Every structure is written in structure tokens, then in C-alpha cells.
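Input sequence (275 aa), recorded before submission:
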Amino acid sequence: MPTVLDELLADLTDESDRLRAVVAGLPDDGEGWRLATPAAGWDVAAQIAHLMWTDEVAALAAHAHADQAPWDAIVLTAMADPTGFVDTCALELAALDAATLLQRWDAARPALGEALRQVPEGQKMPWFGPPMSPTSMATARFMETWAHALDVYEALGVDAEHTDRIKHVAHIGVRTRGFSFVTNGLDVPDVEPRIELTAPSGAVWSWGPDDAAERVDGSAVDFCLLVTQRVHRADTDLVATGPGADAWLDIAQCFAGPPGAGREPGRDGGAEGGR
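Predicted structure, C-alpha cell format:
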């Protein structure tokens, strides 16, 4: 019977395969790879390079239980430029030709899955923030792949195809409610809200107490877009009941790092989203 990790990795593979098929179909002249995406300074190549690099580094972290040295070397490099390290790596790798980027990403994705499966049961793997379980890492990789794919699709004029796989993104969005307040220098509200979201399939997903005094209701797609800062709150159908829930939707952020700039109102335009 498939484990939770197996199911997560299968969903990650499906989401990644769709993005790969889109970029692999770009003309051989590479022009499409240089189209600007909504993330300021990042073209399509940089988005794919970032996903590829993070998959490679996450595999090193997963193997740290057996060989710590490669992971330690990455951490030492990151410490020299803690705020710009990730962007620098993505932009440097984006200079590679499209064929090489795809080859490395094709190798990195299954390698990450195998590395996560090899982490000893009950053990967490190191990361740039708190240590993570293999399932948490797989969920985070799904969230990032989905979010960065949206940037690529927007740049290329390709329609996103939302499926119930986005429940992984919604789950992270709910779990990072407190982080959203902390990273903005705010106190976390005491009241835990009830969240009820309508999935692409029409199913209703819920988190939090049934009788909570505060709530968030609406589309799961809009919620996932909001917590990955790919849409402005004004362009969603999300409804907040209660001051804490209302404040959360203004600052929701499910990715690590300082507060993102978010998007300006209007789904087709805006400032840099979260990375």
C-alpha cells in the first residue's frame, strides 16, 4: 500500500511533468526561455533553474544522515550571502542552455524522491530553516513547483489546470498562519479560525474547530494563490469572518523568508510574488 510520502511524490511528479511538458515544447532558439515572469528579474529559465537547484540541494539534505559533508558545504556557502544566496544560484544556473537545464532537472526530480525515501524512519533532514521530515519536504516541493509553474504559465500565456492536488498547498497555507504574523512582526491571534475551502472537484476541505468564532471561506484555488502570493486578496472570492482571520488574509505567506511584496490588484499584472 502506498505511503503518504509515496502519494505526495506521485502528485509532485504529476505537477512537475506538466510544467516540463510546457517548457520542453518551447522553440529550439531559446527565446521562450528568456521571457520575463511575474517575479521581477526572473525569466522562464530562472524559474526552472530554481526548481532544479532546490531539488538537487534537497536531495543532498536528505542524504545528510549518511554523508553530511555535501550538505555542510552548501550551508557554508549560503552563510556568506544569506539573503541573496537562493536568487544568485537560480540566476547563475539560468544561463545554462535549455537542453542542459532540462537534463539536470530530469535527473534531480527522481533523485530527490529516492533520497527522501531513504531517510531513516522518524528522522528529520536538515534544511535552511528548521529540520523537516521527508513528507514535509515533499509537500514543500509540491507547493514551490505549483507556484513557480504559475509564473511560467503566465509568462507563456498557458492556462493553468488546477486539480485537487493543490490540497497540499492549502495545507501548508493553513499550517503557516502563525508564521505569516511572525514574519511581519505581528502577534499571532489567539483565536484559531475555521477554514472551509471548495476544491476544484467541488469537494469541501476544512481545517480548524467546527465552532470557531472566526472563519475563512472560499475557493481553494484562490486560497492557494493568496498564500503563495500569486494574487492580490482583492482578486479572490475569499471571505474572512473575524478580525484575526481578516488580518491573516492580508499577510498570508506559506513560503519561507521575509514578507513577500505580493501582487497588485488585477490578476494579469502586479509586483513580484513570493519565491
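Checked by second reader. DSSP finds ten helices and four strands in the chain.
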